[in-house]
Amino acid sequence: MRPFNHLNPATLEEAAEALRQPGSVAMAGGGDLLGALKDDIAREYPKLVVNLKSIPGLDRTEVRDGALCIGALCLLGDLSRNELVLQYAPMLAEAAGKCASPALRENSSIGGNLCQLPRCWYFRKLNNRFDCARKGGERCFALSGDNRYHSVFGPAVFENCDGKKRACIAVNQAELAPPLMALGAEIVTTLRTLPVGEFFGVRVMSTTVLEPGELLTEIRIPLPEAGTKMRYKRFSFRKSIDFPVVNLAIVKTPENEYRVALGGVAPMPIRAEAAEELLRGKELTPELAEAAGRAAVRDAKPTEANAYKLQLVKTLLKRELISMMD
Ligand SMILES: Cc1cc2nc3c(=O)[nH]c(=O)nc-3n(C[C@H](O)[C@H](O)[C@H](O)COP(=O)(O)OP(=O)(O)OC[C@H]3O[C@@H](n4cnc5c(N)ncnc54)[C@H](O)[C@@H]3O)c2cc1C
Ligand code: SF4
After folding, report:
1. Cβ distance 28 to 72 under 8 Å?
2. For ligand 1, what atom is nearest to the CA of residue 114?
3. CA 132 / ligand 2 centre spacing (Å)
4. Strands 229-235, 246-252: parallel, antiparallel or unpaired by DSSP?
5. Tens of pLDDT along 60-90?
6. Apex CA 222: angle with CA 219 and CA 226, to 5°?
7. What would the pLDDT profile of 157-198 be if each residue is shown by its tens digit?
8. Ligand 2, residues 41, 161, 168: which to mutate, most atoms within 8 A of Cβ?
9. N or C: where does the chain have the smaller number of CB atoms within 10 Å of the terminal CB?
10. Is this model's pTM higher than 0.70 or not?
């Protein structure tokens, strides 16, 4: 690892001020960031790492104004055991409890989980071996290379540092994103509040729409009405310490309104709107569950190497919906 300066700010204002300077980066648990620094994956090495853990009050979980409010620095392990999370958003507790490894969960924050960099193997290769579009380079190596874990819903097109349009097919792998989307959560930053679906973005060295100096401070989940059902499911190739290849979250209200969110299939976590539309107002049957699975991937554009993900989505969604039948 190369040397860098380290700041322990006492307030969000102090952190934001430091992070507005070019060459600075925020650190929560460091589970993602320190690995990226150690492997030297980026074009530029940060001059300053700003430690968010020295700011008090960012690790609270409480019910306030009809919402479950979770501080950005809450740890995944704590979330998986927290009584309020277990009561109002049990699938979020389940997802948090399945991320990474037990040791990582005790040091990784929910904010860091949502802001983690892409896992694309070209992007993560040691010493910036592949200087791809997502790092400010010219091209996407996965488009013509090995894309078995990449998007099945096509590329994200974004503006690169040189102002030119570039494509990226890396998927967003923030495990907690689909549960939060299905729960209708809001993201609170130092500058604004936005629905979780609008928080994610595809940018050079970023998976969010956060501006320089802007920090995620809290996640707000509206308390679900009585009788709401929810499910979380992930599929990974290995049984332990493995990112999900596909994960999904479902919320079903007593009025049979459904929210279905998918991760690991597109450059950003997505709502399966065609499946939601098909399910709206209906009682679940095995046939409807199967049709919803098909609808969820109707608009997919997989490559030869990753078409297997479509079957995963169809089967997981069908099974989880059937498990929600009365
Ligand atoms: C072996 C291994 C296995 C893993 N398995 C999984 C898995 O199965 N599922 C999964 O989802 N993840 C997995 N991860 C990733 C892991 O979840 C993340 O490392 C962790 O959640 C990130 O949290 P952190 O607090 O350590 O963030 P950090 O590493 O400190 O930060 C991550 C990024 O978020 C930014 N950031 C952090 N907090 C904020 C904030 N409040 N506001 C703005 N920006 C912020 C940082 O600048 C950095 O870019 C794995 C990681 C490893 C190393
Ligand atoms: S998929 Fe994205 S992160 Fe991966 S090589 Fe292509 S541009 Fe880079």
Report:
1. yes
2. 34
3. 6
4. antiparallel
5. 999 999 999 999 999 999 999 999 999 999 9
6. 145
7. 999 888 899 999 999 999 999 999 999 999 999 999 999 999
8. 168
9. C
10. yes
